[in-house]
Every structure is written in structure tokens, then in C-alpha cells.
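Per reviewer request, we include the raw input and output of the structure prediction for the construct analysed in the revised manuscript.
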Amino acid sequence: MEFVGRSQEMERLDGLCRRRHGGLAVLTGRRRVGKTRLLVEWNRRRGGLYTVADQSAPEIQRRYFCEALASRFPVFQEATFRDWRSILKALAQQAEADHWKGPVILDEFPFLVTSSPELPSVLQHWIDQETVHAGLVVAIAGSSQRMMHGLVLDSSAPLYGRAVEMIEVKPLRMADFTAATGISDPVTCVKAYTAWGGIPRYWELAEPFASRVDEAVDRCVLDPLAPLHAEPDRLLLDEVPPALALRPILDAIGLGAHRPSEIAARIGQPPTSLARPLTRLAEMGLVHREVPFGESEKAAKRALYRIADPFMRLWFRTVAPHRALLAQAPAAVRRKLWEGARPGLSAAAWEEMCRQSVALVAGSRTPLARRGPWLPAGRYWQGKGPEWDVVSRAIDGKRGLLGEVKWSERPIRPAELRRVAGELRRKGVPPALSEASEIVYCLFVPKSEGGEKEIEGMLVIDAAAVTAAGA
């Protein structure tokens, strides 16, 4: 699949290469998000050295590292090094002698640290001394968010303060998905994004099926022999240290428990025991902590926890509760299971995409963009009161935005649009926008029957506009 997106990340990495004395880049991000693809592409463009660690003995890890270095510096092919310090010192000397600036990339760095706990201190000295003289650019990456943050952000860690660039690689946007997959119909794009989200590894697996989303879900996820049938367990097992103990929390959230008290009740634990596990799941990019728009992130009493990734929501809705059925069910039964879950999953993904699109329209010529730019949108709810699907505020604070989201695979008729518009107005204005001098109302629908762009004084924003946001 063609490499798409990541322009900002690539620009920051390239900027590091332009520094006279080089420097260290640290890349983090959940598994499958595309860190390796980004680093491989950067390495190809810059003529660097890419190495990836595995979970092996220290001596074998050093041998593999030397073999990777030997592709550029043959001296490493036959030489024997007793420890990491001597390898890295020799690398800096060879690079300086050849006027080579790198980059040197160490992917899956936590695997090396697990086997060789002294490595961060060795790397610190190397970064502070040898690489500065050689002008080397170095990048380390890993999917274990806890370990990577501990190595770099903890004030007591050896690598604290050494990184010139700290890049968190996040899921790609809908516009990137459209460009990568070539699916031209916006509504079909939404259905496909419902299954795969912004994780490019999943896009690659679904690529042979093109726009046949239902078939792709069955062949890639639901079939017991499918490559993604046990994906969440693999993600948790690959963490350093393994995080399989967190699986019950994901199950509970996937079954509809979103408040800590509800999650605790489902898994039979006290709510006070969930703070650290939920934080770790959030660090891993698997769970998203949501608070009403405009309220402090510390508003713990009203916080909700949701599975962050569309694919993971699909898995915990369709696979987790039906493992026994799927183990023996024919394809027709599996497809029926998916078709029953698809509308709800699509509605959730569509609502999420609509919120994300609000801030991304900046710079475009759309009516919504001309009234912004807008802060990132969120939801607003309070007790038994009304709930607003999309709430945002212009950066200058003068205007507020309220949006209602409706999902349907068929075009929505004007009469239905007018009904939805009336419902939105009757809700009033949430406290977060009480001081706005103007409210911009929006109806987010995949497709309107008559192609309306405005109705009842409200902007009508369809899937074509949402999927193009940020392109």
C-alpha cells in the first residue's frame, strides 16, 4: 500500500537531520499505528540504517545489531564486541570518519532494554559525547508507551532531556484512509473506516477486498483463521510488561460500561482499583477518556471511558462475546452477526469522524471553515439533560458550534432534516457556549436526498465533506 500522510512527522524528522550536531528523536505510539513504516520510509529517503530488536538474549541482540550496521560499515561483520558501549563507540567513530550523519534507527527499543537494563545509561553517554562529535542523528522507537515514557520523560531516567524530538505517532486521518484505499464513495468510506479506523496495518490486510467491506470484515476478523481474529490479545501480550490482565476492563467497556463504577461492577472490583489500569490502557491508545466539552480534564466524576479505536470497538462487539459461535459458524452466520452490529458501530464511528472534522476544516473554503477556525470538538452531556453530539467554539471565542449527527446508509430526506433541525434548536445552548454571541448550527448526515447544503438556517455537512477534512 502506498505511503500516505505523516507529512508533519516527516518534516520534524527531516529537521533533525539538518541540525549540525545531530540529535535524538523518540517515537512512541500504539502497536500497528505505523511507526515502523514511517521510520522505514524516512530511512529510505535519508540513506540511514534501520534496525529492529526482538525478544532475544543480549548477545544475540548485539550480533543482529552489528549485522545491520555491517550493511554500511563492513568492519562490523567480523568484529566482536563485548558490550553495547563498545559497539556504539565504534559506530560513532566509523560515522565520523566517513562524514556520515545517519540516521541510526533502533526500533522496538524496549525489547533491548528488557534484556540489557544498562543500555539507557550507555545510550545517554553516547548521545552526550560521541554522537555530538560525529553529528549523528539517532532515533529510538517503541510501542510500549509506559516503558518509552519512563525512559525519556521520567526526570530520574538516563535519557531525560536528551530528545530533540518527541513524536507520538497517532492513527491516520480519514482523508489519508481515502487516499490510501482509493474508495471513492464517501458513505462506503465511512463504513470501511468503521471497521479499520486509522490503523494502516489493518488497511493493508483489507486492501485486496477494496470496497467489499462486509467480506473484508469476515475474512480478516470474524473467521477463526483470520489474521485479526485474536488481535487485541496479541496487542496486550506484546506490551512490555505484558498487559493481558487489563483485558477484562476492555471487555466491560466493549459491552457498554463507560463509567468507572459500571466497569468495576462488571469485573467485580472496587472502583478505586481502576485508576492505574485505565490510565495504562489510555497510554496504550486503546481507551479514550472523555469529559463534556468545555470542562476540565480533571472532572473525574463526569468522565466516561470508551474504546478509542473503531476496529477494537468492532472486535469487542462482534468477536469477544461470540468466540464459541464463531469457532463453528459458517460464513453466512458470521456475516449476519456483523450486519446486526454494523449500524451501531457505523453510527459511533460517524459521530466521532464528524467531531474530528470540525477543527480540520481550517484553511478550506467551506462555509463551516469561513466561520472558524474552530477548537477541537467534543460532546456535551449533564445528568438527565439533553446531549449535544458536536460542540465547539471558535478560537476567537465569538461563535459557538452545535451539531446533530445522524447516520443512515440511505440518503436522508428534507423532511427528516427539518425534523432533526427542530430537535437541535429545542435543546437550547449548553453552558460551555453561553457567552458566545453567535451559534452556528450544523446537521451532519452521510448524504441528503436533495444534496442540501443548508436547511432551516443550519449547515448540512455530508460524508464527502467530512472525509475530505484535513486533506
